[in-house]
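Q: How do we represent a protein-ligand complex in a form that can be generated token by token?
A: Start from the inputs.
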Amino acid sequence: MYIPMFYGFNWSYLLLVIVSLVLGFATQGYIRSTYSTWSKVPLPGRKSGAEVAREMLAYDGVQVAGILATPGELTDHYDPRDNTLHLSNENMNGGSVASAAVACHETGHAVQTARGYVPGKIRSALVPVVNFCSSLWMIVFIIGAFMAISGLMTLAIILFAFSVLFQLVTLPVEFDASHRAIAYLRQAGYDDTTLRGAKKVLTAAALTYVAAALTSIMQLVYLLGQTNRRN
Ligand SMILES: [Zn+2]
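Then emit the structure tokens for the protein with zinc ion bound:
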């Protein structure tokens, strides 16, 4: 991801890598352990994630094209392009507090789309831009660094800044989906243990997005610092 070889050994670069790795491992470990804890706690009524998602959709008056099972662990997502909820097997069929929390969070994204939630629209609009920029910025940066063309390095940083913007816009979208999930579970009359567990699972999931955003901001600051030094 980084290109330290152009600058020789560099303490700030090493620090950046260590902090990014620690943040990544810590947040991934935290979501896995929190999820594992609450996936052992049965949801009152033993409803599966898919059932709870259907009830939340009905409560919010929102329709989706379908609820499909997706392979893998914690691979759950809502795809606004086909208006479909994709739930991992464990959350689709599992009847735990964790599966209800994740299913309701993804349903929260479907509700955002149905309601025209603006940060969600901005995020969707940024997806193709970010896909383009994230594959291009490093090539432009390397060419700029090799040929010592500071204009190219600046262009690379502008391209990279789009992915930072994307990570930042993702935060309110994720917080809002979790907020909708908890609000639904509360009004549906679930007990305090369920609400506490769902909050813990969704907070742990949110931390992974916060860590990703922090990491990309640090990268951006680092790239800016390096470019200024060269100039
Ligand atoms: Zn989400």
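The CA atoms of residues 4 and 181 lie 43 Å apart. The radius of gyration is 20 Å.
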